Amino acid sequence: MKLTRQAIKDVILIEPAVHGDERGYFFESFRKDKLEDTLGHEVSFTQDNESLSSRGVLRGLHYQLPPYAQSKLVRVISGEVIDVAVDIRLGSPTFGQHVKARLSGENKHQLFVPRGFAHGFIVLSEQAIFAYKVDNGYAPEHDCGIHFNDAALGIDWQLDNAEISTSGKDAEQPMLLTRQQTAPDTL
Amino acid sequence: MKLTRQAIKDVILIEPAVHGDERGYFFESFRKDKLEDTLGHEVSFTQDNESLSSRGVLRGLHYQLPPYAQSKLVRVISGEVIDVAVDIRLGSPTFGQHVKARLSGENKHQLFVPRGFAHGFIVLSEQAIFAYKVDNGYAPEHDCGIHFNDAALGIDWQLDNAEISTSGKDAEQPMLLTRQQTAPDTL
Ligand SMILES: Cc1cn([C@H]2C[C@H](O)[C@@H](COP(=O)(O)OP(=O)(O)O[C@H]3O[C@@H](C)[C@H](O)[C@@H](O)[C@H]3O)O2)c(=O)[nH]c1=O
Ligand SMILES: Cc1cn([C@H]2C[C@H](O)[C@@H](COP(=O)(O)OP(=O)(O)O[C@H]3O[C@@H](C)[C@H](O)[C@@H](O)[C@H]3O)O2)c(=O)[nH]c1=O
Asked: Which of B91, B83, B136 is CA-nearest to residue B109?
């Protein structure tokens, strides 16, 4: 298992080591000790989620405000997605910037998305099974979003707008700067 | 999410609640709080594993002796398996008995297998992706097994012997009573 800090250094890319044999394969998909070694602090995941989505589905960009903020460890079990983590930590030198990773059942890469980031992904394959851990519970009343096409973020989602489908909620998410002006000290 | 104690009451069957919509589905595949409520004690999972196996592959029966014993929370992401947990707790009124569950990507059922149990599964579908959590690290030198066909266990694996394939190691595992006579106070 290889863990590598990304351009925004609190985001970590994880590449598990896969053991193949005549039965199939085996790999360790999560090692709390190794993640904490790289992070330099503890992380206690308390919930796992799984979603299935068809090609063009974009889920995001989502985050929960403190005290409900969540770190996420995200991966793809089958299919392929572009995964995006946007730094929305007020005062961060990389505020508004993002890290992007291609996660697939093939490469088995994972992304650690810290608290203070908005997260989303788009499905490039016919279908994708997406799985992730969070270290804080779901708080529907504090479930916030940013519009995926916010020009200030400049995210290349790699599919044409006409191919992209979102939930009703995600089609109406505010822009990051709107959000920041509304709640400047809570991000 | 529904959690139900099984005939051997420390084994728990978990049935998540799946939310479907036009994008696909979403479900919470693990809730530490709900599992601990049902168990009546804490459980701290520190590692996740994933394996892929083809039809007829049988992995098991495996366990690690204390202080390396592992609780496991097991599930199937795609495909179908028969999952088996054998009570090997010395002095247990159900010693040698087992709980069996059909786990599939379809039903999304999970089984909580406590410490003191040997665990194994057989793949019924063309392929199956199996995923599980453990609450204690892998200790290869303390990785123990029982032969899946031990007559004293009487497990119906639902496929003919000719269709079953195992690792070399699992083909040579000892019978439970042999293991018990060898190390009577360590189980
Ligand atoms: C996130 C979540 C949703 N749900 C329910 C609410 C809805 O009925 C259904 C779908 O919820 P939605 O918010 O539309 O799912 P979604 O897949 O769009 O939301 C997810 O998107 C990812 C990009 C983020 O990283 C996640 O943190 C989460 O926000 O699942 C839970 O029960 N528990 C949860 O933890
Ligand atoms: C179990 C394990 C194996 N490995 C490596 C060792 C081998 O190179 C490869 C395959 O290991 P095996 O023991 O043959 O895999 P397996 O799939 O036969 O073993 C598993 O069977 C399940 C029924 C049990 O519940 C598990 O606890 C485990 O014993 O993976 C790890 O790196 N970490 C681990 O935690």
From this structure: B83
Taking the centre of ligand 1 as the mean of its atom positions, its distance from the CA of residue B26, in whole angstroms, is: 7
Q: Which two tokens stand for residue A118?
A: 């908005």
SS3 of A186, please? Answer: coil
Is the Cβ of B24 closer than 8 Å to some Cβ of chain A? yes
Residue ranges covered by each domain of chain B = 2-182
Q: What is the pLDDT of residues B159-183, one digit of tens each?
A: 999 999 999 999 999 998 765 555 4
Closest CA to A129 of A184, A49, A64, A185: A49
Q: Are B119 and B63 in contact (CB under 8 A)?
A: yes
Q: Report which bound ligand comes closest to the CA of A165.
A: 1
Distance CA B78, CA B131 (A): 10
Q: Are B3 and B14 in contact (CB under 8 A)?
A: yes
Which CATH architecture fits A2-182?
Answer: Sandwich (2.60)
* B49-89: pLDDT as tens digits: 999 999 999 999 999 999 999 999 999 999 999 999 999 99
Structure token pair of residue B61: 């029966």
Find out whether B113 and B66 touch, Cβ atoms under 8 Å: no
And the tokens for A45?
């995941």
In this prediction, residues B1-19 reach a mean pLDDT of 98
> Taking Cα atoms as reference points, which of A88, A89, A101 lies closest to residue A61?
A88
Whether the CB of A167 is below 8 Å from some CB of chain B: the reply is yes
- Copy the structure tokens of residue A137: 């519970």
pTM: 0.95
Q: Tell me how far the alpha carbon of residue A64 is from its chain's centroid.
A: 13
